[in-house]
Amino acid sequence: MRSVPDLIIKGGTLVDGTGAAPRVADVAVDAGRITDVGQISGGGARVIDAEGLLVTPGWVDIHTHYDGQATWDPWLAPSSHHGVTTVAMGNCGVGFAPVETNFHDDLIEMMAAMKPNFLRLPGGNYLEGDFINERFNWKETIGPLVDRPTHRSPWNYQSSDGMGLLEFLEWCEDLKVEPVLAVYAGYSLKGDHVEPGAALEP
User: Fold this and answer.
1) What is the C-alpha to C-alpha distance for residues 75 and 83, in angstroms, rounded to an integer?
2) Pairing relation of β-strands 158-159 and 151-152?
3) N or C, which terminus of the chain has less Cβ within 10 Å?
């Protein structure tokens, strides 16, 4: 005799996360796991009428900075608070900032323990800036900190540019990893851009 599922979600438009076209289907759940997908006959201990609604496996967050946070936060907040059930990590760097000064050494030790092979700097938004004149310019990050012009970041704070070319290379040397310098490609976040060609020459 066939057991009755704990839950059937009936008649929803299923977006299963595989890239397949949305389709109307029922979903059966037992003990917290999906056990059947399709046209399910019969009832369940609980039935949800999802006609006209989307049924998804949870939001997939494809842009995260949880590489470090995953070691201390089992919930990966705030993504999980927003209905995210899957996150992609490693595609956009480790998020350590902002951080209190007394935690700097702990975070560096944790990053070293992850044994990375390379270190890319800086991150995309920070590199591109909202406008061309707010991009990250390696040539202006050399020399005494007081001589660096600083620049406005996309998050509306004025960056000191204290993490410059020399500091980046020293960081890579300390971690024994290969440096990967991200270079401005001519496009900024608010649509500002440099025309391809001679204007993009260093």
Assistant:
1) 11
2) antiparallel
3) N
DSSP single-letter state for residue 64 = -
The rounded distance, in Å, linking the Cα atoms of 133 and 142 is: 17
Per-residue burial over 25-48, b if 16 or more Cβ lie within 10 Å, else e, is bbbbbeeeeeeeeeebeeebeeee
Distance CA 40, CA 8 (A): 8
pTM as predicted: 0.55
The label of the residue with tokens 């995309």 reads 124
Query: Domain extents for the chain?
Result: 7-57, 58-114, 116-202
How many Cα atoms within 13 Å fall on the side-chain side of residue 43? 3
Give the integer Cα–Cα distance in Å for 114 and 189: 31
Looking at domain 7-57, its CATH class is mainly beta
pLDDT tens-digit profile of 85-122? 888 876 666 666 556 778 778 877 877 887 888 888 88
Q: Which of 175, 80, 197, 180 is nearest to 123 (CA)?
A: 180
pLDDT at 97 (0 to 100): 58
Q: Give pLDDT tens digits for 10-23.
A: 999 998 878 889 99
